[in-house]
Specification:
Molybdenum Cofactor Biosythetic Enzyme, Chain A; Molybdopterin biosynthesis moeA protein, domain 3; 6 helices; 24 strands; binds adenosine monophosphate; binds magnesium ion
């Protein structure tokens, strides 16, 4: 069994064992935030026809070559075309069509002039300057030309993607199924949220934090509940999770103490343990296993340790599993805003928040960095790395940080 391995090695082991789950077809109305399971190629031009960008008159530019204030050109209006209607007449020399915003350009016309720049009656329009051919015409396919790859497979569907799919007439769309992830909390000390505190007991907060992060990432959480620190009980709950979900995340019991039974429970189930412990702080007490083609991730019970590992390592794997083409956390350089006075004999990740000031990118530490300090995850969208063997770090120092977005 691999033990105390680097973060990157643990990450690549998880990536290698993660399978993209199935696809489903859903209504466009339900598609926001889902991951596209097909490449979207524009089967039509958007817009589908050349149209007028405003209310005015369409005619042939060549009719106005010599037009001026002193020498206006008068054209005969042959019809009116509002938005939503097709022209029925062809524009010939000396004629114009009254056209409204969004209406198709009639055949024969190659330019449009706004009402405000003309003088008109019911039957005639006067023009005072030469127009250029093609001027003031929104061409067919101006937004998207037919045949263009509009969105790649594996893209998260955002508001403009929804709009473009609607413009193309896609009432349904193929997306990846949302991963179902079971959440198991282990620990004799754990109470449900509604229970009053008793001596030595705490409430099970990890289950809620995990649900929150998972839901923000487009996952369907399956809460398995609490297992006592007994390997048989933990094993039974893991089996329950395997039956209901695509992956399991447990918290607690993954360390080296007498009551840390998750590893024993996995052995009891015949799961293959992929590694135990990773060489970082916080969150070294973590393990990964697989059974029935599904990953089982055991995180520390300490709320911050668990969530830092979740963000650094587990959410990227989950995004991959969810079919996203881009799933790794982005790395950026930040300038520390605060001192961090502790030494870091081991590689450490600091919780912080991105701050922009005078064009520079800073990280403000979001609070205490203890393993149990969940409050410093509030507002945390950066995890900055202090290399192992470092002394205290000071405000003004530059660090590499992962952007964590869920
Ligand atoms: P463990 O990883 O089991 O050694 O637990 C480490 C610390 O995390 C202990 O202080 C536990 O009480 C705490 N802890 C474990 N599970 C949870 C949970 N579900 N919610 C909040 N704290 C927890
Ligand atoms: Mg425990």
């Amino acid at each position: 069994m691999l033990q105390n391995i680097p973060l990157e090695q643990a990450q690549s082991i998880l990536n290698a064992h993660c399978k993209i789950i199935g696809k489903e077809t859903i209504r466009l109305n339900d598609a926001l935030g889902r991951v596209l399971a097909e490449e979207i190629v524009a089967k039509e031009d958007i817009p589908p026809f050349a149209r007028s960008p405003f209310d005015g008159y369409a005619f042939r530019a060549s009719d106005t070559q010599n037009a001026s204030r002193a020498n206006p050109v008068t054209l005969t209006i042959i019809e009116e075309v509002p938005a939503g209607y097709a022209p029925t007449k062809q524009v010939t020399p000396g004629t114009a069509v009254k056209i409204l915003t969004g209406a198709p350009i009639p055949e024969g016309a190659d330019t449009v002039v706004k009402y405000e720049d003309t003088e008109f009656t019911e039957t005639e329009v006067r023009l005072f300057s030469p127009s250029k051919s093609g001027e003031n015409i929104v061409s067919a396919g101006e937004d998207v030309a037919q045949g263009t790859v509009l969105v790649e497979q594996g893209t998260v569907i955002t508001a403009p993607v929804l709009g473009l799919l609607a413009a193309l007439g896609a009432a349904e769309v193929a997306v990846y199924r949302r991963p179902r992830i079971a959440i198991l909390s282990t620990g004799d000390e754990l109470l449900e949220v509604s229970e009053p505190l008793l001596p030595g007991k705490i409430r099970n907060s990890n289950s809620y934090t995990l649900q929150g992060y998972l839901q923000s990432c487009g996952v369907e959480p399956v809460v398995i509940g609490i297992a006592k620190d007994k390997k048989e009980e933990v094993a039974a709950k893991i089996e329950e999770g395997l039956a209901q979900a695509d992956m399991i995340i447990s918290t607690g019991g993954a360390s080296v103490g007498d009551y840390d039974v998750v590893k024993d429970a996995l052995k009891l189930l015949g799961a293959e343990i992929l590694y135990w412990q990773i060489d970082i702080k916080p969150g070294s007490a973590t393990l990964a296993a697989h059974k029935d083609g599904k990953l089982i991730i055991g995180l520390s019970g300490n709320p911050a340790s668990a969530m830092v590992i979740l963000q650094l390592m587990v959410l990227p794997v989950i995004k991959k599993m969810a079919g996203r083409a881009v799933y790794a956390n982005e790395k950026i350089q930040v300038i520390l805003k605060d001192d961090f006075p502790k030494a870091s004999p081991r590689r450490r990740f600091l919780r912080g928040m991105l701050v922009f000031e005078n064009g520079l990118t800073y990280m403000q530490i979001t609070g205490g960095q203890g393993n149990a300090v969940l409050s410093s995850m509030i507002g945390c969208n950066l995890l900055a790395e202090i290399p192992g063997g470092s002394g205290p770090v000071k405000a003004g120092e530059r660090l590499t940080a992962y952007l964590v977005d869920c």
